[in-house]
Amino acid sequence: AVSAGAADAGKLVATGSDGRLDPTLLPAGIGANTTIAPASEAIGAGKFVNFHANAGALNVRLADNSNGRQADGFVKDAVASAGSATVYPLDTTNSALTGLTPGSRYWLGTAGGVIAAALNPTDTANASKVCQELGTAKSATELVTDDLGYVTL
Question: How far apart are CA 69 and CA 65, in angstroms?
């Protein structure tokens, strides 16, 4: 169900327990567009994350509008602190959410979550916060994300 590379040449291919091919069986450049990086903290399924340098190495942490951490992508599966996080880029569908209203727009909230309204730029309580539109809900559990950038208020 997985490949170790050239040592597995000529072997038959089998699907994994999910009925799908493991990405290691696919040619380079084919498969999910993801980045795998260590998590600096525990991250729940469906959370939006922020890439950052940790001792010179790429790590991920929860994106958060309250502390300047814009969303660079999201995870579909929970990951423990120091675990390997599979990060999906914006401009794809986050299908690991709950409680969304189909057709509604969503913005980055705190602790990797989403909120249903943009931050008010005239509210002084929002000074130095990140306002980032993330996308439109396709269903109660799916957010079709956009990579529209962000502004710091």
Answer: 6
**Predicted local distance difference test score (pLDDT) of residue 44:** 98
Q: Give the C-alpha separation, 40 to 85, whole Å.
A: 10
Q: Please name the residue ranges forming H helices in the chain.
A: none
Considering just the CA atoms, what is the radius of gyration of the chain in Å? 18
| Buried b / exposed e along 66-89 (16+ C-beta atoms within 10 A) | eeebbbbbbbbeebeeeeebbbbe
Q: What is the pTM of this model?
A: 0.84
The tens digit of pLDDT for each residue in 43-61 reads 999 999 999 999 999 999 9
pLDDT band at 65; cut points 50, 70, 90? very high
